[in-house]
Amino acid sequence: xxxxxxxxxxxxxxxxxxxxxxxxxxxxxxxxxxxxxxxxxxxxxxxxxxxxxxxxxxxxxxxxxxxxxxxxxxxxxxxxxxxxxxxxxxxxxxxxxxxxxxxxxxxxxxxxxxxxxxxxxxxxxxxxxxxxxxxxxxxxxxxxxxxxxxxxxxxxxxxxxxxxxxxxxxxxxxxxxxxxxxxxxxxxxxxxxxxxxxxxxxxxxxxxxxxxxxxx
Length: 216
Ligand SMILES: C[S@@+](CC[C@H](N)C(=O)[O-])C[C@H]1O[C@@H](n2cnc3c(N)ncnc32)[C@H](O)[C@@H]1O
What we know:
The structure is a single chain. This protein is an alpha/beta fold. It has one domain: Vaccinia Virus protein VP39 (Rossmann fold, 3-Layer(aba) Sandwich). The chain contains 6 helices and 7 strands. The protein has a 7-stranded mixed sheet, with helices on both faces. It is globular. The site of S-adenosylmethionine has 27 residues, from helix 3 and strand 2. S-adenosylmethionine binds at residues 46, 49, 54-55, 57-60, 82, 84-86, 89-90, 105-108, 111, 135-137, 150-153, 157.
């Protein structure tokens, strides 16, 4: 039994090391740094947040991210916002793929500073990037056609974010797509009555499912 536990821990460690190595290659290609610094460093700061239900920083997997962007067919008209952007991996990838404008909103000042530095260093050419420091529960969503969420917070903040997005639809009527990676609080979207689930993206290589929701 102990031997089995040791072996499975070693396998998990090797898989993690391999994944980090792949991520480092993608980071180098883009000239950014978005990997977790060490296994003991966790960025988690929801001081000042309205609801205090933040989840810790973990970047989306690069290969899954490229797959998602291929499936949803990002266009040069899209303005995409990663809500809870951490070190800015998602806005940097979206900007390198030629969206109109890539945005990130991040609560944690340290993470947001890294995201800003990454946006400045991102290998050119790329679309404009804006990183906003603040609470997603208080943000304005009226600019965006795509809203990306990688399980950034619990149901209470999710309620505030979805109601703000819905309110923005009456002031700025448009089609909005929500890409929800690891959709832990998808019941909030279903309850809103404004979004329908259009597609679920699964991959055997990744533990996280991604859901694509949109207005009609
Ligand atoms: C799972 S990580 C995802 C990071 C990033 N989207 C990525 O995939 O690389 C969740 C992020 O959401 C941020 N976050 C949590 N609550 C937030 C809030 N209320 N407003 C803005 N950002 C928040 C966390 O600080 C963390 O960086």
